[in-house]
Amino acid sequence: MSRIMNFLFNAIALKEFLVFSGCYFVLTAIAMYYTDEIVRPAGCPGMIPLQLAFTKGAFLDIVNRCGENGVRSLIILNWIDYLFLVGYIGFLANLLGALVKGLERETALKLFSIPIIAGALGVLENSIFLTQLADPESASGAAIFLGSAAATAKLTLTAITVLLIVYYLYGAIGKRNRTA
Q1: Is 42 helix (H, G, I), strand (E, B) or coil?
Q2: CA 136: distance to chain centroid?
Q3: pLDDT per position as a tens digit, 55-73
Q4: Under a CB-based contact definition with an 8 Å cutoff, are residues 164 and 114 in contact?
């Protein structure tokens, strides 16, 4: 794991990569938003309620409220969410990595691993919900719970990443102001 994280840190934690990762994040966010507006029928809950269903009953309630077209839209949105996941996790990892690059290597790698783990949990969550949406009547309560737990952990780690970015960005701005 350390070898992989080291490789990713060296590849992603570059200030020069911020423009690309930021643009990719914004473009995938726009694509996700407008696709949702176009394909999801009125009355069909969105991705976040689906991701946080936790029980088979809540999952089936969402499926029933969405109908066949809504389930198809949730499948489409789940596929697009893979791209969005790469966009926002890539941007957050890139930004955090660039901010912690000057710290002791082991500490920087631990902090950098937070958004990477969030991304892996997002892939797990999307994969689980895609399999469950393919045949909702045969959905597994355990799989739905696991997908929702992965989504909750992903959201928590993403929030922690944002807080770390704010903390280290504030520190970098303060350091720059003290030297000016």
Answers
A1: coil
A2: 24
A3: 999 999 999 999 999 999 9
A4: yes
In this predicted structure, the answer to whether residue 74 has a pLDDT above a threshold of 90 is yes
Picking from 83, 88, 94, 85, the residue whose alpha carbon sits closest to that of residue 17 is 94
Q: Rounded to whole angstroms, how far apart are CA atoms 136 and 106?
A: 44
Hunting for tokens 């102001």 — which residue is that?
177
State the Cα–Cα distance between residues 84 and 5, nearest whole angstrom.
21
Helix, strand, coil shares, percent, the chain, to 5: 90, 0, 10
pTM value is 0.91
The answer to whether residue 160 scores a pLDDT higher than 80 is yes
Does 167 have pLDDT greater than 90? yes
Mean pLDDT of the chain: 94
Helix axes 56-100, 18-39, angle to 10 degrees: 160
Q: How many CB atoms lie within 10 A of CB 152?
A: 15
54 dihedral zone (left: phi>0; alpha: psi -120 to 50; beta): left
Determine which helix (DSSP H) or strand (DSSP E) holds 31, and give its type and residue range.
helix 18-39
